[in-house]
Amino acid sequence: MNVRRRLTLFAVTIAATPLVIGGCTAERKAAGESAPPPAVELTPADRARDIPVSAEVGTSVTNGKVSSVRLTDDKGRQVGGEPRDDGSSWVPSGPLANGRTYTAEVTVTGDGGRTSTRKTTFTTATKPTKPAITSTLYFAGNQTYGTAMPVTVAFEPAVPKEARAAVQKRLFVKTDPPQPGTWSWLEDGSQVYYRAPDFWRPGTAISVRAALEGLPIGKERMGDADRRATSKIGRQVAVDIDNATKQMSVFRDGKLVRRIPVSLGKPSTPSSSGKMVIMEKHERTTFDTRGEPDGGYVVDVDDAQRLTWGGEFIHSAPWSEGDQGYTNVSHGCANVSATAADWLMENTQVGDLVTVKGTEVPLQAGNGWTAWNVSWDEFAKGSALPVPAGLRPSPPAAQHPGAVAGGSSPAPAPSASGG
Q1: Cβ-based neighbour number of residue 302 at 10 Å
Q2: Residue 101, class by beta-carbon neighbours within 10 Å (0-12 exposed, 13-18 middle, 19+ buried)?
Q3: Domain region containing 48
Q4: Is the pLDDT of residue 18 over 50?
Q5: Which tens digit of pLDDT belongs to each residue from 46-72?
Q6: Catalytic entry in 24, 282, 331, 333
Q7: Is 24 tagged catalytic?
Q8: Please, are residues 283 and 319 in contact by the beta-carbon 8 Å criterion?
Q9: Which end of the chain is more exposed for a tag (fewer CB within 10 A), N or C?
Q10: Do 185 and 222 fall into the same domain?
Q11: Does 400 participate in catalysis according to the annotation?
Q12: Is 143 exposed, middle or buried (0-12, 13-18, 19+ CB in 10 A)?
């Protein structure tokens, strides 16, 4: 082959290259045009009536994702809201009004930007006549809590087992930075706790919404209110009390900062052993045990910090300072000196972990905020909804005596007893 012919062949090869590229582009475009269009099915169904004011706009999507939701009432006013993390529904930011008609318009977008829009119009129920289950959210707004603070919701009367999944689905917790957890019910349904596998990180913001107003709970009752609060987590403080030594050890960020002599409950009225959380702090309060077993006294106390619903506190007890560090003489409380009690009030927060060990009786589930008194695996078993498989405790950092270790309950009605 001469040089002229070889050059001619090379030129033909170069000229053919753009044609090959153009053919591949045309094939991809044709495949995109054949993709099925996006579609969405909505709930409540169109023209549905007697819908609870707790209703969400359910969105079952194929071949796309929800790109917009617009919910308006019968006066044209738009309702705010946001989607669930799993995209299964769109949740209004507050309960809907009774006896009103709403229209939801949902747009979904598929591959290539193709869209589809669907509407549903429904009417809410009139004001219910069924009695309510009263809910209490033990998580106030604009507070600073300890790193063991569980979000606690209590119910009166208790939530029946078959209704707990529906209730739990309407309990929302957001953390910033993200630190996912789960809810766990007491066996009797009187309380439900939320926590992560590990302590909250200091500085975390926690936003809670118990969106229960108008929610059907079982066959006979309704939810009572829509409650919400946002607070933050403060410094890490943990308190350990050892009955064997009659000493309290106070840790901050895992480091021992103080030891304090204590006197715990005498054998006839023993203190509980277990992992508790500081629930309340009172500069001054009154213990009135008249009518209670082994009670019958009324006494004013200073610097009292509640640990259980049954009336166990850490508090100032100048009358037992000679026994502190040596002998148990209280009615179940942790007695400390007036000076130590004042220091504790300055250095602890509601939500700090308090661990008591070595006494005659174990802490009863639900006698206080007992979310940390079980391992994470045991805690997760109490959820009425599936817990994500990946939600597991992280390997523990440097352990300290205040770190976490791995039935029916009394009603959460505070007792003023102590001692």
Answers
A1: 16
A2: middle
A3: 39-124
A4: no
A5: 999 999 999 999 999 999 999 999 999
A6: 333
A7: no
A8: no
A9: N
A10: yes
A11: no
A12: middle
